[in-house]
What does this fold into?
Amino acid sequence: MNKTLTIGDRKLEVEVTAYTMLIYEDNFKGHSFLKDVDMLTANPNKVQYSSTVRILWAAAKSADDTIKPIKEFSKQYSIGEVISTAQPLVDLIVESLKTSSKKATAAAV
It folds into this structure.
């Protein structure tokens, strides 16, 4: 699922797929993508910058493999700008978890 976020005066393409989870967990050892997303949704009044910027970066990296490393990427945005992306990111993640295809099944032969 793709979306263009407007952050400040810049546009950023983000994508959330299974690849996003792999990028996230490969780059942020000890962090679970779904647990960190859950933290964003559990208490919307206490959005954490560090979780949000990691999720934002992983979603941007999913859309464009040429995105700079997380430390360089995060220099582009203010704390408030990053935090303002939390809800649109959560909405995109929730939408990506929905599927219109039939569930995969396995059968013993």
Summary: Helices lie at 18-27, 33-42, 49-63, 70-74, 79-83, 86-97. The beta strands are 2-7, 10-15.
